[in-house]
Amino acid sequence: MVKLVMYKKLFMTSLLFIVLLLVMLRISNQKNIVPELEQNLDVKPSETEVFDQVSPTIFEQEAEVSDSDYEIYTSENMGFSVEHPKNVPVNFYEDGSIGFLIKGPTQETETEFYDGMVVVFQKMPLEGKTLAVIVEENRSIYIDIQGAEANVSPIKNVNVGGVEGLNFSEQTGEYIFLPVSTDSYLSIANLTSDPGELGYEKIAKKIVESVKIL
């Protein structure tokens, strides 16, 4: 559930500025201009923040990526490393998370993500809770949102890169939670959807399985 981050501006004095900003964002989408980000301490923010504001990799044919076409991204600040295809760059989001995005051939802008690969990573504080409590709270949110038709799996144990964690899935994706330190954890959201069977799920699986906690 990856949602767009909306800008908030003062009402009267910034009304004109908001209009100009929206125009600039639309131009940015059309010309693949990357807007400047406010957060991420690991590298320069050369990529974008949200799906409709990125320059996503677009595969219109089956995505075949060999092992030699992968490279390692390491985040000392977030406490992990991950392998990703060289032609699928790291995207940096305003909330401090990072992600990898492939836009499928039928995916339209300003809509829910339904065609392509999305894998998002975020480091979060435990706030004095156990990882199990955190995961149950997140799972409960999806159950509340979906109501009586909720299709949320039970919480299961998972091992990623030799680290024991927890996960659950729901109709839009899989969520993995790994301990990073005594007071923080890494959440991984795999929201990949591959209606055209172009290999996105295979790439997302390889990205997730390559994660190493530092």
In short:
The chain is an alpha+beta fold. The protein contains three helices and eleven strands.
Description:
The chain has helices spanning 15-31, 131-146, 200-209, and strands spanning 57-58, 70-75, 80-85, 91-92, 98-103, 116-125, 156-160, 163-170, 173-181, 184-190, 212-213. With 214 residues, it is of the alpha+beta class. Strands 1, 4, 5, 6, 7, 8, 9 and 10 form an 8-stranded mixed β-sheet that branches. Strands 2-3-11 form a 3-stranded antiparallel β-sheet. The longest helix is centred in the N-terminal third of the chain and has 17 residues, at 15-31.
Descriptive terms for the model:
214 residues, alpha+beta, Protein Transport Mog1p, Chain A, eight-stranded mixed sheet, three-stranded antiparallel sheet, 3 helices, globular, disordered N terminus
* Strand percent estimate: 25-35%
* Uncertain runs: 1-55
CATH superfamily: Mog1/PsbP, alpha/beta/alpha sandwich
* Classification by helices and strands: alpha+beta
Rg, Cα atoms, Å: 18 Å
The third-level CATH topology is Protein Transport Mog1p, Chain A
Largest sheet: 8 strands, mixed
Please tell me the CATH architecture by its name. Answer: 3-Layer(aba) Sandwich
